[in-house]
Amino acid sequence: MRSKKAFLNISSNFMLQIITILYGFIVPKIIITNFGSDINGLISSITQFLAYISLLESGFGPVVKATLYKPLSKKDNKEIANILKTSEKFFRNIAKVFIIYIIALCFIYPLIINNNFDKVFTISLILIISISTFAEYFFGMTYRLFLQADQKNYIISFIQIITYVISVVIVILLAYFKANIQVIKLASGLIFVLRPIMQNWYVKRKYNICFNEARSDYKLKQKWDGLAQHIAAVIHGNTDITILSIMCNLTEVSVYSVYNLVVKGIKQFAQIFSTGIDASFGDMIAKNEKENLCKKFNTYEVLYFTIITILFTCTMILIVPFVSVYTKNITDANYIRHLFGYLIVISEYVWATRLPYSSLILSAGHFKETRIGAWVECLTNIILSIILVFNYGIIGVTIGTIVAMTIRTSEFIYHANKHILNRNINISIKKIALILIETIIIVFISNYLPYLDNTNYINWILNAVMTIILASAICIPINFILYKNEFKELINTFKKIIKRKKYE
């Protein structure tokens, strides 16, 4: 059953990421083309500032999810109701505070950001962009966490796919008929409001959970221990653009956001292979299946590292050529930044490397044990980025992020191996060393490929295909030879899933 759910989660999430990436490239391109780089930078900046409201979650979400694993495995509906009721109350309170935060942002943001836009225009965008975030906290956050904990992330994925498709069609139509940016953002925002409402409806319809019996005084353990983890995640996702917004200009924010579209898309592809896996790990931990956990994690680790090596190495080679085609004929900003392109890919490569270990740690509920490292990552990222941005601008903030994430990734690897898997850390170190070696080999050989002139999307796609074939031809055979047993285990798992589906 775990394998089937994991397969559904991965396949549905794969479809979602394709749609998400297409949406992520289409909409900003429309905005840059029709309204300019400054407007795109302004929207990216506002979005990042609004994201800071999630600091109020205090790491509550991951704690809720980790707490749900045990009662879900035992089908303890009363305990599930207690957890969900407490969670819903908490997130609705955040939604109310969010309103206050938005009002404050409307007054403060126009004063601290270096831009030439009218204050009323800026405030209207803040209010419009905030609608979907408010709805997520007020209606759907609790039920999204519940579906994730129950290994049914595919339900969330299908809902998101539907809203993305509808939204992109509306954006294209409105842009075609020369609607202003406020109307376009309002229309897409209202579509995204449907997501939490649909998640809420699905859970209440499909699950027999009696909320009336839930205790009003129920409290979750480790509620505050997840704070550091959450702050670290928020800082990682928002520091760079925030610092650029305040200390540079919106044009630089637009440049950053375009490159970030690419690495974010690749990052989401990497997450495909972790979505739903953490719930499987959580279920094994809840049932004390230590040997099975170690075996499954080892197989997952090999598969995941093979995939991210191909993904991020190809991205490192192809990102600047893609941006050059994507921003062709756009002259209000310099988007061709080779060094920055390499560094932003490396930063997310480091992040992706830690994902199996962080997923395992959160599944085990080890929030308290790893909170110090989270604070170290936050402070390192902020301090280094602020120091370096003065002399190195967009390069400086990216270096700050890389250093901070490297420290945190090292901690995750150590803790997961020593305190959860109870195995020698050298097992993971060898695999990561292999990633580095394979990356260097692929980048070196790629210099000798007969690439076409990078003048259009067709040529870029053909170049990308060559690069992917090269990376796959190097990574897959090497990993198969070194980790033959793990690949055999993986193949057997897929065979079992297919066999089950055949007889269902």
Can you walk through the features of this model?
- With about 500 residues, the protein is an all-alpha fold.
- The chain has two domains: about 1-210, no CATH class; about 225-504, no CATH class.
- The protein has 17 helices and no strands.
- The protein has helices at about 1-35, 35-50, 60-75, 75-110, 120-150, 155-175, 180-205, 225-245, 250-270, 275-285, 290-325, 340-365, 370-390, 395-420, 425-445, 455-480, 485-504.
- The longest helix has about 35 residues, at about 290-325.
- It is globular and about 60 Å long.
- The mean pLDDT is about 80.
Characteristic key phrases:
504 residues; mainly alpha; 0% strand
Q: Regions with pLDDT < 50 over 5+ consecutive residues?
A: none
User: Which bin fits the share of residues in helices?
Assistant: over 70%
> Strand fraction band?
under 5%
> What overall form do the CA principal axes indicate?
globular
Number of domains: 2
Largest sheet: none
Look at the structure and give the mean pLDDT. Answer: 82
Distance between the termini: 13 Å
Give me the strand/helix succession.
HHHHHHHHHHHHHHHHH
The number of distinct helices, counting runs of at least 4 residues, comes to 17
Number of strands: 0
Derived from helix and strand composition plus strand pairing, the structural class reads: mainly alpha
Rg calc:
23 Å
Short recap of the structure:
With 504 residues, the protein is an all-alpha fold. It is 83% helix and 0% strand.
Topology:
Layout: H1 2-35, H2 37-51, H3 60-74, H4 77-112, H5 119-149, H6 153-176, H7 181-206, H8 227-247, H9 250-272, H10 277-286, H11 290-326, H12 338-364, H13 371-392, H14 394-421, H15 426-446, H16 457-482, H17 484-503
Helix pairs in contact: 1-2, 1-6, 1-9, 2-5, 2-8, 2-9, 3-4, 3-5, 3-10, 4-5, 5-7, 6-7, 8-13, 8-14, 9-11, 9-12, 10-12, 11-12, 11-15, 11-16, 11-17, 12-14, 13-14, 15-16, 16-17
